[in-house]
Design a protein that fits this description.
Length: about 240
């Protein structure tokens, strides 16, 4: 009986000792883990901070990636000969938008506005926003009825602008003064036999400008011409003037 108690007592002490050893091992393991965590915490923190700083730096400077992408895209683009020509010689092409269209306008470029007339001899009358004929004359201006003068030529250019009839096709051309800086040209179109009366005025520093056109049933100044001019050649060259203002 005593032997059995002794064996039991030893067995219990052995188990208790093993149990105590197990707890010691567990505590030592926990202690080691705690120590390792304390030691490694700063290292892990530094690594995380460095990664975060790199990401934040990339976010703070978004152009860095764009510049890299642009450089890679530029390296892939090979300029063609046409593109080189555009870069090297853009000044060879006229800049029509900047310079504007300086070409003279024609009668078809204007929108006509028809007006009523009380004259029985007038078929119809019209006006338009005509621009002055560019002049080479200087102020002060004086009307000249000399047929070879610049003033005369510009005067007939204004009539042509209003009717579309060239000076060489103006038959029975009658030019008369109509007040200061104003004249009236009356003529028959040699091609269509239509009769026109064009009111023209001088605009200071600009030139002659038509102001109104009357299309006539009949040439109302035919009595001004000599009855001896009956041939076709005479009719094509008849020109008379009235210099009274």
């Amino acid at each position: 009986m005593q032997d059995e108690d002794l064996v039991f007592s030893r067995t219990r002490r052995l188990k208790k000792k093993r149990k105590n050893n197990r707890w010691i091992i567990v505590l030592v393991g926990i202690l080691l883990i705690f120590i390792l965590s304390i030691i490694s915490a700063p290292i892990i923190a530094n690594l995380m901070y460095s990664d975060r700083g790199a990401n934040e730096e990339g976010m703070d400077d978004p152009t860095a990636l764009d510049q890299e992408n642009d450089e890679s895209e530029r390296s892939d683009i090979i300029p063609t000969d046409d593109e080189d020509d555009e870069e090297d010689g853009p000044t060879d092409r006229p800049n029509t938008e900047a310079d504007g269209d300086l070409s003279p306008k024609t009668p078809d470029d204007y929108e006509l506005t028809f007006v009523e007339s009380a004259e029985e001899n007038v078929v119809s009358s019209y006006t338009a926003d005509w621009q002055p004929i560019l002049t080479v004359q200087e102020e002060p201006h004086a009307i000249s009825f000399e047929k070879d003068s610049t003033d005369w030529k510009e005067m007939l250019q204004a009539a042509t602008l209003a009717t579309g009839i060239d000076a060489e096709n103006m038959q029975y051309l009658w030019v008369s003064g109509n007040g200061p800086g104003k004249v009236i040209t009356t003529y028959t179109d040699r091609l269509s036999s239509e009769n026109f009366r064009v009111h023209i005025e001088w605009r200071e520093n600009q030139g002659y400008t038509p102001t109104q056109v009357d299309m006539l049933h009949s040439h109302d100044q035919m009595n001004r011409f000599s009855s001896n001019s009956n041939s076709d050649n005479d009719q094509e060259n008849i020109t008379e003037v009235d210099e009274t203002n």
